[in-house]
Amino acid sequence: MAILIAEHLKKYYGENETQVRALDDVSLHVERGEFTAVVGTSGSGKSTLLHMLGGLDRPSSGRIIIDDKDISDLKEDELCIFRRRKIGFIFQSFNLVPTLNVYENIVLPIQLDGNDVDEGFVEEIISLLGLDKRRNNLPNQLSGGQQQRVAIARALASKPAIILADEPTGNLDSKTSQDVLSLMKVCGEKFSQTIVMITHNEEIAQMADRIIRIEDGKIAKGGE
Fold first, then answer.
1. The domain defined by 2-97+161-221 carries CATH number 3.60.20.10
2. Per residue in 71-81, pLDDT tens?
3. Domain spans, the chain
4. Which pTM does this prediction carry?
5. What pLDDT is stored for residue 223 in this prediction?
6. What is the pLDDT of residues 179-209, one digit of tens each?
7. Which residues are CB-contacts of 73 (< 8 A; sequence separation ≥ 6)?
8. Using CA atoms in the order 49, 53, 80, 119, what is the torsion angle rounded to 10 degrees?
9. Does 18 score more than 70 pLDDT?
10. Alpha carbon 7 to its chain's center
């Protein structure tokens, strides 16, 4: 069963001969529990696509359905709440709060939403990601790979419908990238989590269950 459906997404900038078609009639679906990689070169439209799927930007036309909810016409405040509750984000830049320790960073989105933290679940994630001995460390006391593991834990902790990862290994060396992606895949399988990851790295993409290729704002392969 598809947890994510995108239909005829378009994102155009400008008009006439200066018009840029960042997304040009893109349709795709992602099954529940699937780990999907969206691969493309710089300027192919993959980041624009991820921003549309995550409700961080709105398409010029088309619609997006996540967990049976059409987010295309939600008002900004409704969309903000939906993102916080249903979508987990993992960014290239980690985006950890420097004054909070590892545990506090992981549970922050849950607390901001006014919900109780599932302590047992969070502890399981922390253990699986090898962060047990780092839970009281601040971000500046961690390596890049450890910081990205914290970002993965934070995305998982709120039990979102889907996790969107934007070049999650872009700031990591080759070996650390492989380690982090392996952990992300293991977590996804253990918790039946749906993951959509964009990357320009073909080797990293091979770790996914399915690869979607995007070129010049269009799906070149693997969308359906």
1. no
2. 988 999 999 99
3. 2-97+161-221
4. 0.91
5. 60
6. 888 888 888 899 899 999 999 888 889 999 9
7. none
8. -120
9. yes
10. 19
Question: Are 109 and 157 within 8 A, CB to CB?
Answer: yes
In this prediction, residue 114 has a pLDDT band, given cuts at 50, 70 and 90, of confident
d(CA 169, CA 179) in angstroms, rounded, equals: 10
Whether 212 shows a pLDDT value over 90: the answer reads yes
Neighbours of 112 (CB within 10 A): 10
Q: What is the CA radius of gyration of the chain?
A: 17
Q: Which amino acid, 203? A: E
What are the DSSP calls for the chain, one per residue?
A: -EEEEEEEEEEEES-GGG-EEEEEEEEEEEETT-EEEEE--TTSSHHHHHHHHTTSS--SEEEEEETTEE-TT--HHHHHHHHHHHEEEEETT----TTS-HHHHHHHHHHHTTPPP-HHHHHHHHHHTT-GGGTT--GGGS-HHHHHHHHHHHHHHT--SEEEEESTTTTS-HHHHHHHHHHHHHHHHHTT--EEEEES-HHHHTTSSEEEEEETTEEEE---
